[in-house]
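Handout, section 4.2: multi-component inputs.
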Amino acid sequence: AQSVTQLDSHVSVSEGTPVLLRCNYSSSYSPSLFWYVQHPNKGLQLLLKYTSAATLVKGINGFEAEFKKSETSFHLTKPSAHMSDAAEYFCVVSVGGATNKLIFGTGTLLAVQP
Amino acid sequence: GAVVSQHPSRVICKSGTSVKIECRSLDFQATTMFWYRQFPKQSLMLMATSNEGSKATYEQGVEKDKFLINHASLTLSTLTVTSAHPEDSSFYICSAVSGHTDTQYFGPGTRLTVL
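Output:
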């Protein structure tokens, strides 16, 4: 079975400082991993995805994530937080790619302080 | 980019009535759409997989007779909550799969409140 664990339910950073949102996965097969962001009253937006190509994945808005098989991790990072990054972030796993069932983590609420 | 819409965005209904939620892929065709449910401050839980022209596949624990799904065209899937009760109040989100980009695109969600 596939699952993801987001280690922090809330993360607070100051504007301009680095962001680290942690995610560990469990999968019996080679997983596809995603990070989605959900702003209030808006639909989920795909930030980036890993599908067995390069282990360092670059996404939109300056975010990136590194797939580490030995650590079963897929942490999301950004060098410098912006106020507009404040939102809920979901780590997601799928077997078979994005066109198959997605299993969502519990989410991390990112707060950005001025 | 690919856009998925949902209608209505919010609905309030009385207990015992039925509510239909529409999910549309606006600029692409989607043979597969998914329906999720999100409780306050919780994650998304997959309810069912909707395939155009065939019966939906429901996740364990989801009542297929209560949550009727119809995927009549490549751009439209509907979720009908039948005989709604207050415990059905939730945020319902759909997604549509674009075969061109191998990506699920999510709708903005529908907030259902059952009184």
